[in-house]
Amino acid sequence: MNVLILGSGGREHALSWKIAQSPLLNKVFIAPGNAGTQNVGQNVPLDILDFKAVAEFSLTEKIDIIVVGPEAPLVAGIYDYFKNREDTKSIKVVGPSLEGSKLEGSKAYGKVFMMENNIPTAAYGEFTSESLEAGIAHLRANEGPYVLKADGLAAGKGVLIIDDLAEAESELKEMLSGKFGDASSTVVIEEFLDGLEFSVFVLTDGTRYKVLPIAKDYKRIGEGDTGLNTGGMGAVSPVPFVDDAMMQKVEERIIKPTITGLQKREIEYTGFVFIGLISVDGEPKVIEYNCRLGDPETEVVMPRIKSDFLPVLAALGRNEFGKLPLEQDDRSCATVMLVSGGYPEAYEKGKTITGIDTVKDSIVFHAGTKQVGDEVVTNGGRVIAVSSFGDNKDEAIALSMKNAELISFDKKNYRKDIGFDL
Ligand code: AMP
Ligand code: GLY
Fold it and tell me: For 289-314, how does the pLDDT look when each residue is reduced to its tens digit (9 = 90+)?
């Protein structure tokens, strides 16, 4: 089989690394990829939002499966594009239809979907500039902290958690008058949920589903979960507090109703559902849906999948999908993200990275890296994820921390407390 993976982060390196191990693979391409993905497959300089170019390439290279890493091509309708073209409709795009991608693309859509299906989540209200007064009244009728969410995609910056009522009111006004452009023309105001978060990834074809290894990521830039939100600074899998009893609740109350909810709305969904959860006094509630895998969660999820993943992807849409094993490694896996100094705000690129080859007992997944001549240089905020196994999370984390020291670049930063709350 020939596989094309879209994206250029640690998630895409982990996906291509896993798929490259399959005896069923002929060739894996990564578009555009990074300096790490070129070691497991072939990088292709495609604009992944140029669907025509992606289609032409796929036809030329006889691609069987396209795995879409980030949300942008999904929310822009790549699934529908391939399905609606006679010459590309037999290519399997792993990712939801345009309608399915709204679970991530619109917070309000996701909330309505959860209400419709009785899926536990924070109470909420939805407001636009026309209903600003009602929004203010909603804030005043509730106690803080106030959770304000831009409805649309806002590069991970669209969620504000504010203690002070006056500040929340003024933020609401700013959001509704275009603080995040169109993305905040609708704002969801949510009840604040207090608890421990974790991520569940479900691979589904709309009928059948498989639950991937459970993970927890660390989103804040600073130790002790302080400072600005990032894409994610590290992750751990499995998550000790997510035991069988918790997973049974998640499956019965959240995963199954999500799949039947897709069916009720007749939404085509052949891809990953990323369910961001929070455990409030032992009861799971949904914080958000995403329509893709998480990053850096994928860097701990893929290593823990023991079974060949390619036949599982290939079987999506067929009965066989339900029957194929998805065996998990019993060991723990942890990853720590090495980031550019200044990230998630302004940072420099093009710094020489050294020491990657000296890491022998961890898996080095590249994120924002680029090959320039003989050198690998930094090319993004999140640069490298160091993933390690251990008999327990502490051993896995300790090994990643040890090897994080071996890799160097100017202004390297990373969190040394991944897993601190577990
Ligand atoms: P999101 O972009 O929806 O993932 O939100 C970003 C982060 O904001 C989440 O990972 C949570 O830490 C936090 N968050 C979102 N919604 C809530 C909520 N209702 N209560 C408490 N924290 C929340
Ligand atoms: N790590 C969280 C995300 O990928 O959205």
Answer: 999 999 999 999 999 999 999 999 99
